[in-house]
Amino acid sequence: MAETALLEIRDLHAWYGASHVLHGISVDVKAGEVLALVGRNGAGKTTTLRAVMGLMPRATGRMRFAGRDLLPLRAHRRYHLGLAYVPEERRIVPGLSVRENLRLGLVAAGSGIKERTAIDEIAETFPRLKERLDQEGVTLSGGEQQMLAIARALIAKPKMILLDEPSEGIMPVLVEEMGVLFRKLRDQGTTLLLVEQNVEWALRLADRAVIIDQGEMVYESSAAALLADKDIQDRYCAV
């Protein structure tokens, strides 16, 4: 695994209106690794992802991605740099087929990849979707919709994917399929920043882990070290 920091975050603060919700987050995400952000609900994990993607009303500090300063860039420009985001709510577009939802991933990233080739390739990675390309996306099961949201993010071959609670509400068999997929992506060089309430599952996937609590980064270690430290998990991650 390369040691280069693909994403650098320094002293990140963010606000919703007058509410100051992130307080000086600083972390690097190395190229080719899986970094897990864990902590209780409301700790600031999703807000961190939204700040990286340019979706917060106000954010200050310093963020660099692949050597580029992110803060001046609007969200769509961050997509064009190779950042992709799978939000917790999936955002499958009603009225569009699986194929058409996948096409949106190419449009959002401003990619020059040929559409037919890209859809054929991503369908091979997601056999469940391959069988349903012409089915309306919102009629898929919850787990299949999550797979579609991930496939839509992957289709333009981003450098990094931000994943917000990908296992939430998904059948265990599909959660395990996602785990296999994420390991494969890491092995192929895609960097993953993973927010997840299923702490044990996330730590078994990740290379490193960061705990966020009340908008502050309070712990950083290898994922294996946090997985073995039940006291820290109980202090900061227990529901």
Task: Give a quick rundown of the structure.
The chain has helices at residues 45-52, 75-81, 98-109, 115-125, 127-130, 142-154, 172-187, 199-205, 223-228, 230-236, and strands at 5-16, 19-30, 34-38, 58-65, 68-69, 83-86, 160-164, 191-195, 208-213, 216-222. By secondary structure, the protein is α/β, with parallel strands linked by helices.
Structural write-up:
- The mean pLDDT is 91.
- The protein is built from ten helices and ten strands.
- By secondary structure, the chain is an alpha/beta fold.
- Strands 6-7-8-3-9-10 form a six-stranded mixed sheet, with helices on both faces.
- The protein folds into two domains: 5-82 and 159-236, 3-Layer(aba) Sandwich (Rossmann fold), CATH 3.40.50.300; 93-156, no CATH class.
- The two termini are 33 Å apart.
Helix content: 25-40%
- How would you spell out the order of helices and strands? EEEHEEHEHHHHEHEHEEHH
Give a quick account of the main beta sheet: strands, pairing sense, barrel closure. 6 strands, mixed
- Domain tally: 2
Low-pLDDT residue intervals, each spanning 5 or more residues: none
- What CATH calls the topology of the largest domain is Rossmann fold
Give the second-level CATH assignment, the architecture of the largest domain.
3-Layer(aba) Sandwich
Structural class: alpha/beta
CATH-wise, what's the superfamily of the largest domain? Answer: P-loop containing nucleotide triphosphate hydrolases
